[in-house]
Inverse folding.
């Protein structure tokens, strides 16, 4: 049972191949699938690829932007219209990983990876999926909750909200190693302001649960209020609510719970 | 005095030595920057096979049964090697210098003693096929109680990790379960010291994490010999270790090494060569055995953890009058080089200080952890960490500047060390003076004037009366808190209490950590010191 | 085992090989072409030791499926030296003690080349960012950063 590589010209053919073979994985930038092969993951025996240019498309215009699943982080960094996504894109890997890693692959990256997905979660993303029986769009939260069962579907693209101002979207990755290291915690906050008050706050956390999650208690503390010290303090104290971090070499679950509020407060106050 | 024997190799040496103070190019630099330096893995041999090991999933377990029926039939598998295939399946690295008993199998047979211990070696046409075969091996384990803590391991009734050493401690010279250092009467001096400070220090294992993982390639050569490309840091040591394990003369092997992709001590254990060569012997083909990154990080040997208790007696004028140390070196499941680490640890006591009463016990302990090995000053580094933390705490306790406190207690030429050797060529005082100067840390003139070459010897050269040990075992001391220590989590919920006072006079209220020059308490440094 | 034919440019020369399914570019370069300059360090994208340029872009060869470079151009450290003459980066690494064990050096040099090819006069911060995916365990990073800055200075003045 050696490894077979199947290359298709269209994403629908690739999706069909993927859904018909339990041991198939879709090869994006290679940072997940090739790693699994290198480390002897024998559950993976078919590698599926698609040369479909649609997967490489970027639509940066309008209130919601769309990124093809095969778009790399290096390409996002080259798009001036996507400057709000530059911080999360730049926080991933070194230059080589950014030249390879893709938006679609990042959705499947386990802790301590998957930083870009934290930003997408805060920006109310939807994921376009191609299964064996047609395509559909699902909210990113729904996708993440069922991620383990999504191996047989192909991600075509991701769409997300464009923040109305640079202030409205904030992102920060906490790592122990400078300038680059795995995430201890990754935070992203989308805070649209309407009439001086926050309307539709979304806060997303990475490495605080088995998948990226929203900090709903902190969002509630912000909703309908001005972003003042008291509001920030309330959100920070609620940051750990509903989280279930794990121990890892980068930080213990206890440590992550202790510091998530500290970093959320700094993020919301714009402090270093 | 350093002696230079200039008569030796006089004709091979340029006596016009002017190297210090200028750069000299490395011999291997050109190879490194062009990528032509040859590492063990930079050899592609015709028909090379790949070896992977099946590792224990338990930290301590009896092996009831190993079923390789499916794996034997797996595609691409050339040979599955068991412990019974290894000619001498028990070794200890330092047996080459007659130190210690053979205690570690190349492949576990009856039981496994740490998670990741090799049980089988699978030689296959490709790495992928080796991985597929590994998944088909069935091993029936009977889990055994584990012990991961060095002090728990020495308690009566603790699980026996390694039957070669049934008390879980390395035995020196067939008799002694630890290294001992006795100099003067530490207990008497502690009883009369102005302050006593007792502390517990713990250093974790540290992985070397070389960028090149451990590995080797072995290939049949002419005349029944084998050529072996290896990542070893200790080439001749590895040759002899392989000769012993494979029970052949050492000239059976032509080892090629020398260019190592980062070692730091983590490539002295001859981890891959014996099985790699055995694979080549059994298949007649070149075989490569190289660690993956996870194997390197999880099962490659680390710097061993150490737990250290220090109990010091210090006078108000800053003199340390007694130092009592108990240290436990965590060897993991097998000895490797940890017996030697514990010797080095004992040899380093009490640090570079002249202390008239020193008492040390150092244990090399077996636990169900990954066996430890060499790493940059192993045995000494953790002890220095503990001693220097302790010196800062002692300085704080008596209200002295930490730099001046070290100069006061530093050994000087002519002093008697606890090992009953005269201190020579000492330079701690000068190092501290330079460090203070570079750090713009103010020290007083009398300490700037101090010298390693002055005021040593004399009464400081005497060997004190040293009482014989009574056989009562010391009990584990309690951790005594200082202003350096954070409150334990449990104490956060109740009003802070004073720590229980040690037996001698209670400590004075802690002083601020900032440099304090209490000239009144400390007027005549060398006068009071001499007594 | 089924093999796939693969052609690409390797350091300016056309090469053709047959690869097994799932073979990564690092194995293809080292074991099928015989270019031993890229090294294996982790197989998971953490160390940068296997870095090569694909169509001028820095990639990790251990995470690149070999057949994805069909028709493309792959450059390794072996392409830097021109005849007997060291590349300015190689010269700067040697002069600045930017290699000790030498194992990370091929990846460091390719990461540095990727930087200088598009940014001939980088700032120190840009150099640090450019090698942030490459791990060195021996020298520390300062000599490496200094070497890259020295090489860029040399270029700028040349």
């Amino acid at each position: 049972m050696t490894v077979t590589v199947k290359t298709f010209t269209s994403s629908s053919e690739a999706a069909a191949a993927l859904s018909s073979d339990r041991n198939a994985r879709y090869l994006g930038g290679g940072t997940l699938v090739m790693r699994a092969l290198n480390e002897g993951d024998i559950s993976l025996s078919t590698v599926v690829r698609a040369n479909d240019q649609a997967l490489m498309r970027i639509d940066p215009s309008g209130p919601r932007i769309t990124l093809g699943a095969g778009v790399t982080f290096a390409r996002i960094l080259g798009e001036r219209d996507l400057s709000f996504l530059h911080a999360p894109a730049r926080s991933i890997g070194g230059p080589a990983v950014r030249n390879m890693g893709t938006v679609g692959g990042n959705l499947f990256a386990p802790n301590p990876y998957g930083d870009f997905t934290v930003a997408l979660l805060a920006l109310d993303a939807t994921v376009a999926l191609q299964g064996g029986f047609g395509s559909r769009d699902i909210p990113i939260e729904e996708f993440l909750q069922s991620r383990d069962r999504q191996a047989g579907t192909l991600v075509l693209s991701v769409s997300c909200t464009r923040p109305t101002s640079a202030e409205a979207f904030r992102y920060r990755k906490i790592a122990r190693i400078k300038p680059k290291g795995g995430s201890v915690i990754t935070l992203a906050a989308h805070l649209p302001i309407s009439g001086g008050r926050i309307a539709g706050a979304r806060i997303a956390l990475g490495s605080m649960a088995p998948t990226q999650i929203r900090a709903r208690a902190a969002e509630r503390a912000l909703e309908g209020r001005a972003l003042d010290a008291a509001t920030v303090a309330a959100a920070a104290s609620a940051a750990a609510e509903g989280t279930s971090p794990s121990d890892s070499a980068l930080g213990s679950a206890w440590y992550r719970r202790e510091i998530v509020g500290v970093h959320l407060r700094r993020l919301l106050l714009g402090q270093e | 005095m350093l002696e230079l024997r200039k008569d030796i190799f006089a004709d091979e040496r340029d006596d016009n030595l002017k190297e210090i103070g200028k750069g000299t190019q490395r011999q291997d630099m050109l190879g490194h920057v062009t990528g032509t330096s040859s590492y063990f893995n930079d050899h592609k041999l015709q028909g090379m096979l790949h070896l992977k090991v099946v590792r224990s999933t338990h930290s301590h377990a009896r092996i009831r049964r190993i079923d390789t029926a499916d794996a034997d039939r797996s595609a691409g598998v050339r040979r599955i090697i068991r412990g019974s295939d290894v000619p001498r399946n028990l070794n200890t690295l330092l047996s080459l210098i007659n130190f210690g008993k053979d205690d570690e199998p190349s492949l576990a047979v009856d039981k496994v003693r740490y998670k990741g211990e090799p049980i089988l070696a699978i030689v296959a046409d490709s790495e992928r096929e080796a991985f597929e075969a590994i998944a088909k091996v069935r091993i029936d384990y009977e889990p055994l109680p584990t012990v991961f803590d060095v002090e728990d391991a020495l308690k009566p009734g603790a699980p026996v990790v390694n039957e070669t050493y049934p008390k879980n401690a390395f035995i020196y010279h067939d008799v002694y379960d630890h290294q001992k250092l006795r100099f003067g009467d530490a207990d008497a001096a502690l009883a009369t010291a102005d302050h006593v400070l007792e502390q517990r220090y713990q250093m974790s294992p540290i992985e070397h994490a070389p960028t090149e993982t451990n590995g080797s390639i072995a290939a049949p050569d002419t005349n029944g010999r084998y050529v072996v490309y290896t990542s070893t840091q200790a080439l001749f040591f590895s040759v002899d270790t392989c000769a012993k394990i494979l029970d052949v003369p050492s000239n059976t092997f032509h080892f090629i090494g020398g260019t190592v992709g980062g070692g730091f001590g983590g490539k002295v254990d001859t981890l891959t060569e014996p099985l790699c060569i055995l694979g080549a012997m059994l298949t007649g083909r070149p075989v490569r055995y190289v660690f993956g990154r996870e194997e390197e990080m999880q099962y490659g040997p680390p710097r061993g953890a150490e737990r250290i208790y220090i109990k010091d007696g210090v006078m108000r004028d800053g003199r340390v009058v007694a130092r009592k140390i108990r240290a436990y070196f965590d060897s993991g499941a097998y000895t490797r080089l940890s017996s030697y680490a514990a010797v080095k640890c004992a040899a380093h006591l009490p640090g570079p200080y002249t202390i008239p009463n020193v008492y040390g016990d150092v244990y090399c302990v077996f636990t169900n952890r990954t066996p430890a090995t060499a790493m940059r000053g192993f045995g000494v580094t953790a002890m220095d960490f503990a001693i220097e933390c302790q010196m800062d705490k002692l300085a704080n306790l008596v209200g002295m500047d930490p730099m001046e406190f070290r100069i006061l207690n530093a050994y000087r030429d002519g002093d008697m060390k606890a090992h009953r050797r005269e201190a020579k060529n000492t330079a701690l005082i000068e190092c501290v003076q330079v460090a203070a100067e570079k750090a713009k840390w103010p020290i007083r003139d009398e300490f700037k004037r101090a010298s390693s070459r002055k005021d040593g010897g004399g009464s400081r050269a005497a060997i004190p009366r040293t009482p014989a040990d009574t056989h009562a075992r010391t009990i584990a001391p309690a951790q005594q808190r200082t202003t350096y220590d954070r409150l334990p989590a449990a104490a956060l919920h109740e009003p802070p209490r004073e720590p229980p006072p040690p037996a001698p006079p209670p400590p004075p209220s802690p002083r601020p950590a900032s440099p304090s020059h209490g000239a009144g308490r400390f007027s005549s440094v060398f006068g009071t010191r001499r007594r | 085992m089924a093999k796939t034919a693969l052609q690409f440019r390797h350091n300016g020369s056309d090469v053709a090989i047959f690869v097994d399914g799932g073979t990564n570019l690092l194995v293809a370069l080292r074991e099928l072409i015989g270019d031993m300059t890229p090294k294996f360090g982790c197989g998971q994208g953490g160390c940068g030791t296997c870095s090569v340029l694909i169509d001028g872009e820095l990639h990790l060869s251990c995470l690149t499926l070999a057949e994805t470079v069909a028709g493309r151009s792959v450059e390794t450290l072996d392409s830097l030296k021109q005849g007997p003459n060291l590349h300015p980066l190689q010269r700067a690494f040697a002069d600045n003690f930017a290699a000790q064990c030498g194992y990370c050096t091929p990846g460091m040099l390719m990461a540095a080349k990727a930087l200088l090819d598009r940014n001939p006069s980088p700032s120190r911060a840009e150099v640090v960012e450019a090698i942030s995916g490459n791990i060195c365990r021996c020298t520390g990073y300062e000599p490496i950063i200094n070497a890259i800055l020295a090489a860029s200075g040399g270029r700028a003045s040349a």
